[in-house]
């Protein structure tokens, strides 16, 4: 086309608002037919309406154009949904659901280190700690099996844990001395 020739501008008999008011039931029906969830339907409709407004001056039949555009937007919506492998979730919700876990080998190394430290304790402390914390016995069960009073088990356990803490601290200090600056 030459620069001087112009395309005839379509003359719309009704305004955009009037068209929207008249087509509202039909647009709802299209969204229902395509089974678009209500939380996404509004977004899809807004996309179609925005496209209509942007091309309003070039559209010959606004009703047909809006209906077809909405149908196309619905199809695109379902293609995207089918194409995605997983449903997107809010990252905050995922963080709340997930709890960090140690790597299995890290837990195993800690257990070996703890066993080595426990081996350095007196035999009664070793036995008490293993029964109480490794095997999960209650203080009364430990007292019964070792022949102690239940109150003695608590005192002995706190002493054993204090000695274990002292050993851990001594090992840390020894590691600091070995490492050159």
Query: What's the number of structural domains?
Result: 2
State the name of the first-level CATH class of the largest domain: Mainly Alpha
The count of helical stretches stands at 8
Reading the helices and strands in chain order gives HHHHHHHH
The radius of gyration computed from the alpha-carbon positions, rounded to a whole number of angstroms, is: 37 Å
DSSP strand count: 0
Low-pLDDT ranges:
none
Could you describe the largest sheet, including whether it forms a barrel? none
CATH homology-level superfamily of the largest domain: Winged helix-like DNA-binding domain superfamily/Winged helix DNA-binding domain
Percent of residues in helices: over 70%
Description of the molecule:
- It is a single chain.
- The longest helix is centred in the last third of the chain and has 29 residues, at 150-178.
- This protein has helices at 16-33, 38-54, 62-83, 91-97, 104-119, 123-134, 139-146, 150-178.
- The protein is 71% helix and 0% strand.
- It is mostly helical.
- It is built from eight helices and no strands.
- The chain has two domains: 16-84; 108-178, Orthogonal Bundle (Arc Repressor Mutant, subunit A), CATH 1.10.10.10.
- α2 packs across α3 (62-83) and α7 (139-146) crosses α8 (150-178).
């Amino acid at each position: 086309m030459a620069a001087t020739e112009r395309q005839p501008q379509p003359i719309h008999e009704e305004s955009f608002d009037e068209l929207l008011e008249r087509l509202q039931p039909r647009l709802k029906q299209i969204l229902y037919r395509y089974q678009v969830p209500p939380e996404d339907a509004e977004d899809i409709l807004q996309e179609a309406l925005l496209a209509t407004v942007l091309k309003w001056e070039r559209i010959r039949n606004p009703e047909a154009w809006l209906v077809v555009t909405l149908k196309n937007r619905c199809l695109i919506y379902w293609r995207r949904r089918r194409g995605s492998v997983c449903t997107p979730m809010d990252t905050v919700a995922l963080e709340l659901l997930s709890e960090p876990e140690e790597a299995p080998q890290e837990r195993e190394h800690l257990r070996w280190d703890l066993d080595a430290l426990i081996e350095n304790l007196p035999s009664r402390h070793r036995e008490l700690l293993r029964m109480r914390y490794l095997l999960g016995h209650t203080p009364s069960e430990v007292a019964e099996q070792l022949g102690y009073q239940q109150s003695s088990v608590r005192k002995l356990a706190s002493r054993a844990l204090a000695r274990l803490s002292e050993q851990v601290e001594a090992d840390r200090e020894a590691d600091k001395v070995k490492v050159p600056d």
